[in-house]
Amino acid sequence: MCSLRRTVEFYQSESSRLLLPPSKSHLNGHAGPSTPSGSFSVLEYLPHPDSSDKVSDKRKKRAREAKKVALRLEQMVETGSVSHYGEAIPIADSELAIKWQKVNSDSIRECILTRPPPTLRLHLDRSGMTPYGQLVKKGAWVKFPIILDMTRFVARGVWQEAQDQPDIQAMLSRQAPTGKRVLYRLESAILHYGATTSSGHFTCIRRKPTNEGTHHGPVRVNKTCPDECSCANCVCFGKVRGETSVPGKGWLMISDDDVEEIGEETLHQAGQSVFMLFYEKVGDYVSPERQHAVDSVAIADQDGVKSKL
Question: What pTM did the predictor assign?
Fold first, then answer.
């Protein structure tokens, strides 16, 4: 849009300049291109002794074309849509070559989640191209947390309109976010071992199920403290606690039909091979009183089922 507006200004000025005689066109706000030193070439834009005060038909035709282009571009500005950028513009069953004025400006691109999903799947693209056009695998080391805080990347329940000016300083600030925190816990990871993208071996590391026989998946976790809590444990250990990492325990490595129990330390050592990460959203804080009431209802339901059997 910045380039579009600059092009509109250019053709509006051109349509006015071309209707003036060549001897006076330099006075219509066109001092000419600047020299490398930053000054303007004065001698080049002095009136030529042989120049005429008449406007030629060719010059009038160019002025009409510039006017048509300016009107067509003004419609784009009004509708907020850009078409045929960098190309000729079709006008009245003909295509007019257009000199697009390109504008470069600094900008910030922000991607946000409006509704955090219950599961978050992250794919790490490890495919790259060499200067010779060959496909290679990127072996960069990726550091990934067990508890992923996505609060900074989630909309606060309010959708900003396109015309609203974002607060650049707030976007760039590294301060801890306030309000409801959106946390995810790592449940599984897919690893790729091999030097190329066309060969190698995939393995999976997943969290070990805790309630085997009754629950075949990981138990859903909740925040240990409310979001607004700032106790010492929250500051030091985060909002999700109660899980102790035991070396060599708690995770399963699956390779074809081989299953081996491993610890969290093996997961952290796989940063160079991680290919996909699967996170589950952490639930809101549940007070002990509410949890006790929920457990009582669950026990009563189980007793009722047993009595019927």
Answer: 0.56
